[in-house]
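Q: I have 298 residues here and want to know how they pack in 3D. Can you give me a structure?
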Amino acid sequence: MLHSPLRYPGGKSDFFAVAKSIISNAGISNVHVIEPYAGSAAVSLGLLDWGIARRVTLLERDPLLYAFWFCVFNHPAELIVAFQELPITIKTWEETRPLLAMDKPDPKRLVDLAVAALFLNRANFSGILNAGPIGGRQQRSKYKIDCRTNKDEIISRLLALSMLAPNVEVQFGDAVEWINRNSKTNSFVYLDPPYFVKGALLYRYHYRLKDHRDLSRALTTAKFKWLLSYDDDPVIEYLYEEFHISRLAFQYSVHSPQQRSELLISNFGHSLPPEYVAVKRRMRGRPGSGIDAADLAR
């Protein structure tokens, strides 16, 4: 099984197994899979590795993450050499941070941006690109900036992924705009947008309420089959009430016994493996989260 080189906010152990089960049980196979919020790209690339997808397109709005995935599949040797030679230090962290100011990828600096994405993802708290370094800038913690950067293991993952290059395309762009332009595509689309509740803390390109609403409207008119994962919130249930919604139980990591739940939503009938079904919580009114229904209808 392939493993992403990226640590990712909200990452869930075993989630690929759930997505694979849902898609396989729906009779979806030999399809072009598109992931408009590439992130760690674990689901779409896993489906390609298992032969369920014949081709994958990754779409990413963050220029550093876009550059990373583009280089994995187009310039893997340059990426690996640059990463191998990069010191995992606070000095490197300080020199890398200015690249976060870039809002669009520079075609002449894609490898630099890709290495920056991988470095910051591995060196920062929870893999968040614009967070602080593990151990703090003074490195007084017992956990240092390099404690999540096993270069040999990461390079092994990069090499394994690069073998999929003939069947992977990477694009830079906005997910909702892509959906509106390609609403009649025959591809299967998996979406893992920024979290509704804590998106601003986890992602550089997080969503406001309007953006979440725009995504729901775009998917409502889409003709392709899609599967959507979201944090469990009544507002999201409200936005997608006409679709198939199930509640997934998962652990954020193998190191944490705490179980959370997440919404899985699709425009086709899907079912979860019994061991992953979470108990539906009671909701006190709708849409919840202190947001008036009128705001959602605008």
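Q: Anything worth noting?
A: The chain has two domains: 1-60+173-298, 62-162. The mean pLDDT is 89.
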